[in-house]
Amino acid sequence: MRFSFIFLAAILLPVQANAQFAMSATDGFEAGFLLPWLFAEQTIALIAAGLFLGQHRKLSFRQMWPIFMVTMAVGLAVPPTVFSLLSLSLVLLAVAVTLGILIALKMPVPMVVAVSVASVAGVLEGISSAPGASDWGAALGVAAGSALRANLFFVTPFLLADWLSGADRWPWVPIALRVAGSWITAIGIMMVALLLAPLP
Prior knowledge:
200 residues, 8 helices, 77% helix
């Protein structure tokens, strides 16, 4: 949670201040794309989910992507006040750490696990990006911006990992993906430690 505020503090404050008064659909789109509630936590969870699903080439992108988008739409419908930012941060980081471990281990996964990962990633991303604007136009703008940002950080790692895993001329790719999973795990654990550390 605090990572997101620090990372985007320079632009977060003026946008949020304007949102208190009026927000157009364009403003909502920019806020959804650039300023989600939990930028760092959401990003690392999305990258982990994309890499995990792309690492297993038997999982079709055409199957996983619709699941992700439908469940994200469900999450976007959840009012942003239902869950606290701290609880969402911890859940997102727990998902990232777990997926990082699975990427590092490269264990075979049944289809039900893959569907669950795509669904959980979509729902959490939707809940964490739920528009708080009362105006319908602004809310739709936030939802559209959030969907574009989510696809950028979910689809890109998915397709990249899938494509690289199928390139036989690059035998180092599986090792690189497992190393990436280890880094995701380490970063996630560090973020959890900092998040739970008492303020000075």
